[in-house]
TrEMBL record:
It comes from the Bacteria. Keywords: Cell membrane, Cobalamin biosynthesis, Cobalt, Cobalt transport, Ion transport, Membrane, Signal, Transmembrane, Transmembrane helix, Transport. One of its GO terms (molecular function) is cobalt ion transmembrane transporter activity. It comes from Paenibacillus monticola. The lineage of its organism: Bacteria, Bacillati, Bacillota, Bacilli, Bacillales. Forms an energy-coupling factor (ECF) transporter complex composed of an ATP-binding protein (A component, CbiO), a transmembrane protein (T component, CbiQ) and 2 possible substrate-capture proteins (S components, CbiM and CbiN) of unknown stoichimetry. Belongs to the CbiM family. This is Cobalt transport protein CbiM. The gene is cbiM.
Length: 255
């Protein structure tokens, strides 16, 4: 990646981040799944479900950066993109919010396991700095946004690339599905924790999912388009790093 281009992009991300930190109203009432909202048993369950992905993600990241240290720039870019997009929140279901996730880009570039680490770090910083999410609910939020979303997005990217050579379409689909899958899982997490008096978990899931869909489908489309624009930028200014990442992922898949 050319240093001048990297600095320009970093300055843009930094400026946008400071805007979100100091100028956005209503932060405390617009969260992922907010602190203390889940019953203790479910909070622990989602932590236990998330931790194995985090551990394997760290091992994958160590291997990637050891073999190709220059990829650290793209790791930072994936983290910044995820942080900025997922901080753009709209109040939705009580105790939660709708927002882009930004994990589709990282899933395409790095694979889903590294995004379990990057996404969870983003969520931790948002919980501590923006009151966006929480520590007890970090496992649930990380499982939906940093695990389920990236894995779904990566699978769709690979599927589209097998069916058609249109890479931009594959990138759009990955970002779109990663965003929506995050909220499918969030709806499920809320449904099992708070089943409806009539209809149980299924009725609760349909209720949460339908409310999220009103805001999340347009957001997912917008995120897909923005991700394609950034992908084109990377194609122009960082082709060598993207080639290295492709070799990394192909090497893992062939083992």
């Amino acid at each position: 990646m050319k240093p001048r281009s990297l600095w320009k992009f970093s300055a843009m991300v930094a400026g946008f981040t400071f805007y979100l930190l100091f100028n956005e109203p209503g932060t405390a009432q617009a969260m992922h799944i907010m602190e203390g909202f889940l019953p203790v048993g479910w909070a622990v369950f989602w932590w236990l479900a998330f931790v194995p992905f985090f551990v394997f993600g760290i091992l994958k990241l160590k291997k990637m950066t050891k073999d190709n240290p220059e990829l650290k720039l793209l790791l930072g870019l994936a983290g910044a993109f995820t942080f900025v997009l997922s901080a753009m929140k709209l109040p939705s279901v009580t105790g939660s919010s709708s927002h882009p996730t930004g994990t589709g880009l990282g899933a395409v570039m790095l694979g889903p396991l590294p995004m379990s680490v990057i996404g969870s770090i983003v969520l931790l910083f948002q919980a501590l700095l923006l009151a966006h999410g929480g520590i007890t609910t970090l496992g649930a939020n990380a499982f939906s946004m940093a695990v389920a979303g990236p894995f779904a997005g990566y699978a769709v990217y690979k599927l589209v690339m097998k069916l058609t050579p249109r890479e931009k379409l594959a990138v759009f689909a990955a970002a779109f599905i990663a965003d929506l899958m995050t909220y499918v899982v969030t709806s499920f997490q809320l449904a099992v924790a708070f089943p409806a008096a009539e209809g149980g978990v299924l009725a609760s899931f349909l209720k949460f999912g339908s409310i999220f869909a009103v805001t999340q489908i347009p957001l997912a489309i917008s995120e897909g388009l923005l991700t394609v624009l950034l992908w084109n930028w990377l194609r122009s200014y960082s082709p060598n790093e993207l080639s290295l990442l492709k070799r990394e992922t192909k090497g893992v898949e062939s083992k």
